[in-house]
User: What shape does this take?
Amino acid sequence: MGDEDAGARGRLGDLDAAADRTGDLDAAVADPSRDLDAAVADPAGDLDAEVADPSRALDAAVAALRAGGVVLLPTDTVYGLAVATEVPDAIARLFELKGRHRDIPIAVLVADAEQAWRLAAVPLPESAGRLAARWWPGALTLVVPRRAGWDVDLGGDPATVGVRCPDHDLVRAVCREVGPLATTSANRHGQATPPTAAEALDQVGPVDLVIDGGRLAGAASTVVDCTVEPVRVVREGVIPAAEIAA
Assistant: This one.
């Protein structure tokens, strides 16, 4: 996909504006319909008023996540709420913001297949490797048996983990720096995910950092259970179920 850190598809272009979330977020989200690649709203107000270097979005996200913060960020599908899996208690905030019961698990975004399989039990299901090779990076979440000893509480079945390598350069760059990210759509449970960062923030409430990637009109990822054979489509999303079976 070209230079991953520079950002293909215009997702990481110039950072147009920054705003303190205690003030008017619209200063950072002036026109969600335009190509606003990575405006950053920083709740702590410690970013410069004008940020010209696209790497600052990455730096700000990494700092917030390592501190245990929740980052609202664009992905290749919809806006997401992300925390670092290695920070104790950070994932609990996702369930609170979502208003979701812990019996519904949160998936994990990764930098690449290698990072994903570090979380998986050995041997990896053949179906998982095959589907990842075909669809990653992309909108496919694969549920695989979890590696013994990786005891991060994601909700749901502690013996499995849902992993996805997104087709989004910024998110993958963050994963390379911070490690796997527990990530869920930026909406209250049972409600549609808003297409803009400002609307998502209004719905979920205060977070620690907002990265605006412009208007996202995508759909959720397709979720496939690779712990059974044949595989089972748990949720049909961007990738049609028929394509998974093909």
Remarks:
- The longest helix spans residues 55-66.
- Residues 1-38, 42-54 have pLDDT under 50 and may be disordered.
- DSSP finds seven helices and eleven strands in the chain.
